## 1
Amino acid sequence: MTLILSNEDVERVLGMDETIAILEETYRELAEGTGISRVRSDCLAPTSHEDAIYGLKSMDGVVPSLEVGAVRINSDIITWPRTGNHRRRVKVPAAPNDRYVGLILLFSTASGAPLAILPDGVVQRMRVGATNGLGIKYMAREDARTAAILGSGWQAGAQLIAAASVRNLEEIRCFSPNAAHRQAFSQTMTGLLGIPVLAVDHPEEALEGADIALCATNANSAIFGPEWVRPGQHISAIKHVEIDSAAVALADRAVTHIKDSSPIHCVIEGMDGMEALPSRYTAKGWADIEALDFAAMPELTDLISGRVPGREGRHEITCFINNFGLGYQFAAVGWLALDKAKAAGLGREVPTDWFTETVHP
Amino acid sequence: MTLILSNEDVERVLGMDETIAILEETYRELAEGTGISRVRSDCLAPTSHEDAIYGLKSMDGVVPSLEVGAVRINSDIITWPRTGNHRRRVKVPAAPNDRYVGLILLFSTASGAPLAILPDGVVQRMRVGATNGLGIKYMAREDARTAAILGSGWQAGAQLIAAASVRNLEEIRCFSPNAAHRQAFSQTMTGLLGIPVLAVDHPEEALEGADIALCATNANSAIFGPEWVRPGQHISAIKHVEIDSAAVALADRAVTHIKDSSPIHCVIEGMDGMEALPSRYTAKGWADIEALDFAAMPELTDLISGRVPGREGRHEITCFINNFGLGYQFAAVGWLALDKAKAAGLGREVPTDWFTETVHP
């Protein structure tokens, strides 16, 4: 049987502690050269959907120790609505019933069999949370007690859960531009974490004195500038454009998720304007991207394997940038979700024969 | 609804004439730069299956004019059994019920929605047949009447169907090493095509006087040498290793399927021996691969768009080498299969909601 899981199934079984643990364990294998990741590819094409482009994106990964391979696919209708001088990237839920399309397919390396098909949403959120959580675990001060977060969306929640999983936080302060959003977030997260999460009116209020500064937005340009950097701080971003390169330059240690951060771009000629390279439209954002040389930075596996230290003193400023995702993460976290969903009897079983064949070409 | 199709469904509706037509039409768009293909990636990893490796391969393509995108995935258990001095690449049907795993996922570029999931077998066979069929259409003599085929497997059948679709063949001669196989093939194909297909005992008997020489084997090294090249002949291969580079050198015009023929290799260190580069083990095969410079050859889209002529005289020797596949082919032919299957009421309908989500990460 092949299991079809929903985001609800995955959410019910997938905890942050164990997501961090499985990533840490499998990243060690990646560091040792016994794991495989195929860099993301983006096929960008015209769509009949108004003022939008179509994106077909995929990435693959194999975790041999878990006997699992994964392909993660996104089939997106993407728009770039303008707000003031900026354009924001907004995916449109254009599939039937106003839904988005992101899938993970899991395969057995022992038999080749398709083990499961699941939406990518919850796994994506958890793997981003867990990845930045590992950044905090290896780089933030052991005695970090306060965290600030810029952003109050779905990803921001996972960032706080992960931070609270690896450090004994006593206070969290949240800023995001929309007061209603940040207040709702504060209420939900306070209840969820059992730690006071305060909504504040200005980013300065959130950041002042924070041991850990978390950026978790969908911004297209820098939202965290050099003026906010403080000794002893750990800075964390879920997108590389969130942190101004001048802020990164102030860090004693800056670590990236992966050095090799160039997706394969397959773009129809003439579409390499706004759609393919949105950052062009916010000159600062684009300049920031240019200024960060990920290949020259240590990457997360270097921290986990002990090849580079995360922090060597309580006054050091550390910075972790989750620049790009890996198919490998979807194999590891997808495997965990499947393992736990099976144990809990969740999901729809369909005959594996539906997705296999008697011929091989 | 999302349609789950089987190879049987696809086989019932997908004809060679229209497969050739859809590829020809969509290749014209590819030539014009309005189609997208993401080169195949191969993740090769250890497997617990005895004496084998695990391969997770994927390729993507988008045909904007058909409003379809495709991801093709293979999840293979691969072995290299030795026969005499050679090793042959053999996929093992290790999935439940002794089955292979190859999938095509089709998506709508208008909504992002997953349209269908189907096994890749029949589409793969038809697109290889149709691709080499286009080679014949654009390069073989208009009055070609006899064809020889080396090979008697599943792919060989599609090669003959395609050849008979684009030329008025009157006689076909087949050689393959196993007498029982070639006799069974001869009987089946004679019935199917209504053209005598003779099984012969030596490759020479098949090739002598043949206007079209088809190679359709799973050989790892050259099976078609320069001694068999004749004026006016069209030579066709479904794998680049089948034709000795010395034979290609004798051709007045040699065209490849695609210039960019390097899949992305994601291989665990130390696995780049037999498993990753099998051709190393047959020195001749390896040398052949090295000798052919696909990037310097015209490609199929050049013929179809008229950028290069296919043949300019009846005594010219022409050669078409189907060196690598394209995700684009799976989008085009997959779309056709889906369109016809829907019209015929075939396939299993499952809720599209199973493969979509309300969140986007």
## 2
Amino acid sequence: MKQLSGRLLSKLSCNAILVSANQNILFLTGFDGFCKGEREAYLLLTKQKNYIFTDGRYTEAVKKFIPNFKLIEISPSKKFTDILKEIVVKEKIKKIAIDEDDISVKEFLKIKKIVKVCSDKNTIQKLREIKKPYEVSQIKKACRLGDLTFKHILAQIKTGITEQELSKKIEMFILSKNASISFAPIVAFGDNSSSPHHVAGSKKLQRNETVLLDFGVKINNYCSDMTRTIFFGKATDEQKRIYETVLEAQNKAIKFLESSIVNRKSIKCFEIDSVSRRYIISQGFPSIPHSLGHGIGLEVHENPRLSPKSDSILKKGMVFSIEPGIYIPGFGGVRIEDLVFYDGKNPQLISRAKKQIIEL
Amino acid sequence: MKQLSGRLLSKLSCNAILVSANQNILFLTGFDGFCKGEREAYLLLTKQKNYIFTDGRYTEAVKKFIPNFKLIEISPSKKFTDILKEIVVKEKIKKIAIDEDDISVKEFLKIKKIVKVCSDKNTIQKLREIKKPYEVSQIKKACRLGDLTFKHILAQIKTGITEQELSKKIEMFILSKNASISFAPIVAFGDNSSSPHHVAGSKKLQRNETVLLDFGVKINNYCSDMTRTIFFGKATDEQKRIYETVLEAQNKAIKFLESSIVNRKSIKCFEIDSVSRRYIISQGFPSIPHSLGHGIGLEVHENPRLSPKSDSILKKGMVFSIEPGIYIPGFGGVRIEDLVFYDGKNPQLISRAKKQIIEL
């Protein structure tokens, strides 16, 4: 950590980095006890020390699990900003890098009064883009359980089941395998599938309806994410044409990756998006109303983004989704999503559930 | 909503309110499809219109479920800030109120370039403090299932079970009743219970250990939260003394509420905290290393805060926890938590699981 903070600080030309985002704290400390969505801790990496600020609910745990950080207990009468001020004076800190995507206006206005601030330029998020072997192995484990869940859930699909019920079955199966869900499963029947992020509701499944399933597993804090679309009954010719177009859009993106890796040095993430997107449009369908894909790790959605405006460059060690989709309001939608790990030589497909058209 | 925005705008002396926090959007629209922890939508309430900004993944759902808001689809080429600029010009907006706890520095710096901003003074959070009858009924439902879960889980406690396994059992039971958890259950055995927010781990339960269980249910987006501490075997005299002190600290807070309601007009939330805290200290134990309690509703932790520095005043319709605790590092801890609904006449205890000392 000492070495890391030195390297980061020299890059950012500042004297300290304030780490606030929950997943960045988890990444740097390995401690997963802080509640996501609440501000329960900060890390401060300076040239002299690594500090962790948290309240009395966590001091015991921090002493035990994060011994390499200097613990500073904060409370309503011993505020974070007061102690920050003391450290700034003591260590003669001139400028602190903050995470501009995570620090709130209220925090910013308080910190600015104490010390000059600058952007941390997403330094920690960028470190997280490149997965270490342990991280890849956890994501792969999560994907394997995702594949198994899909197989299990296919047998549960029957007339009259509701989206909510099927969603719960996904959740229960994952829990029963001693893992967690990485997000609330998306289950969409019939024309609900034209809503890419449909909230599973009380709709009951009828024959000849589409079933879109998008779910993820979390193992040791690492996430998977997969989407399959199947047909409960016979797919119509139009449904088949949509399905095959989406599948081909995904294949084209993967083939583009394979050939680019062989032929070139640098692949831009927006180019991968563009391959799938252009193919779908060329077949007469509307453009994908979302990015083609996203990085994944401690969070379901993280860098790199595979979107039309992404400035990311593909790097060895990245794990990301490729998930083209076609959505026709009033008719339905199809999305197929798999995770890809770029090992420096090949784009490895690490979710493996069946993708040939399924008619139940 | 029209009426609401007019009322809010006149209070804040600005021309528009930007609503960004996920739970505030849910509160104002009733739509629970946006992912918590990601910025997927904004609301803009102006004198003329109510707008909702979101991307293509949600346009179908918004049209269906939030028809009273003007939908504006944003995308990488049609950015939120560009459209905001157009509206600011068109509606001659001079100043926009923002949620300083939620808007990030990056967003703030962009918005500031377009229009003057001011704090929304937690207007929506304050509205959420006072629960409507429907909201109270949902929290009560969640509490009832919490009580049932506790009863069910008591029968699952046995030698050798791990914290994680017991935590999963809580989760599975809640899911099987068609509800969700409101947060990852805290299960702490033995001296792990001295960590108020212990993360359930691989520790196996042995005879004569404390079992601290803190979990919540979510029904129709409304949360419950309850803590019970039991003894797996005979409690020692010291454990009993700690338990009875915590229970009495909770009783004293409730009695203070009852008598204050009868005698006085205004009750400050910090006073309730103080009653329990002072009692625990008076018995020779360390002060509670957290607040005595917190409001609850769409979020597990929301206003009002029952903490030493809280400036909230108790109002009819508030629902909050009362959860004193004593934690002795290396020995263990006890916390007892219940939810209270203040109906204007009485502090109603709405979680009802047994609180007499339990020795299994």
